[in-house]
Amino acid sequence: MSETNPRPNASAAGTFHVGGDLAVNRLGFGAMRLCGPGIWGEPEDPQAALSVLRRTLELGINLIDTADAYGPEVNERQIAEALHPYPEDLVIATKGGLARPGPRQWEPDGRPGHLREACETSLLRLRLERIDLYQLHSPDPGVPFEESVGTLAELREEGKIRHMGLSNVSVEQLEQAQEIVLIAAVQNRYSLVDRSSEDVLKACGHDGIGFIPWFPLATGDLARSGGPLDEIAARHDAAPSQVALAWLLARSPVMLPIPGTSSTEHIEENVAASTLELDEEEIEELAALS
């Protein structure tokens, strides 16, 4: 019999207060995959994508991550169509700072004018007066980092952003940004097989900053049949992906995984991971696999 809850709810993952005042369940949803191939254009079944978004709320998810670059623009419109008017406890985190010349193409654009336009058009698409968490999608090597961060700080002062976040940054960039504005969350790539942002996670833990790992279900060869992840999953009658999520949740109290999928079945499986309890030996065994 599975150790995961047959009627899962993301609240089982515990809560974290983004920016000190926005309580979110620690298992969120990354909406990017609801777009078409290459994160470009509309999906093949637009109504199915809307159903996935509605299912997230039914499962207790109250943190949804998106960006103006997803589609581009498609993902934010999907969220508004499916969920507006929004529940009071729903936190929509979006991002700006990437240009999309074509499918699977991503180019940094941290120019102040671009960021201001990106934020203001996101507000329109999401049908919001203020974005709860707005993140710089990526530093632009062609623009001074403090200029990009300073623009978002101005938008926060204007009331268009409630809390500010960063994505794809180093510890040094996080520290630099915090000299300009309070940073509420950082979104970097992190998983069982990619812990290159371990130092950023530790810095976030030290300062009480939410850490949102993107591509959190990457497991590589660890999930192969008979491998260590597969063996631990078998002990719990769980999927390897559920063990990977449970490990992330146990890794740090500031960890806010946002696994993405275009399948309601997979959302339910992911949320069920919030009830899977790994013992200390299993946590250490997985930690040693990097």
- Rg, Cα atoms, Å: 18 Å
User: How many H/I helical runs?
Assistant: 10
Reported CATH architecture: Alpha-Beta Barrel
Strand order of the largest sheet: 3-4-5-8-9-10-11
* DSSP summary, beta strand count: 11
Strand content: 15-25%
- Structural domains: how many: 1
What is shown here, in short?
By secondary structure, the chain is α/β, with parallel strands linked by helices.
List keywords for this structure.
290 residues, alpha/beta, TIM Barrel, 7-stranded parallel sheet, two-stranded antiparallel ribbon, 10 helices, 11 strands, globular
Task: Kindly describe this structure.
- The protein has 290 residues and is of the alpha/beta class.
- It has a single domain (10-287), classed as TIM Barrel, CATH 3.20.20.100.
- Helix content is 37%, strand content 17%.
- It is built from ten helices and eleven strands.
- It has a seven-stranded parallel sheet with strand order 3-4-5-8-9-10-11, with helices on one face. The protein has a two-stranded antiparallel ribbon with strand order 1-2. It has a two-stranded antiparallel sheet with strand order 6-7.
- Strand 8 (131-136), helix 4 (145-157) and strand 9 (161-167) form a beta-alpha-beta unit.
- The protein is globular and about 55 Å long.
- 47% of the residues are buried.
- The mean pLDDT is 94.
SSE blueprint:
Elements: E1 15-18, E2 22-25, E3 29-30, H1 46-58, E4 63-65, H2 74-83, E5 91-96, E6 98-99, E7 107-108, H3 112-126, E8 131-136, H4 145-157, E9 161-167, H5 171-178, E10 183-189, H6 198-207, E11 210-214, H7 228-235, H8 240-251, H9 264-272, H10 280-287
Parallel strand pairs: 3-4, 4-5, 5-8, 8-9, 9-10, 10-11
Antiparallel strand pairs: 1-2, 6-7
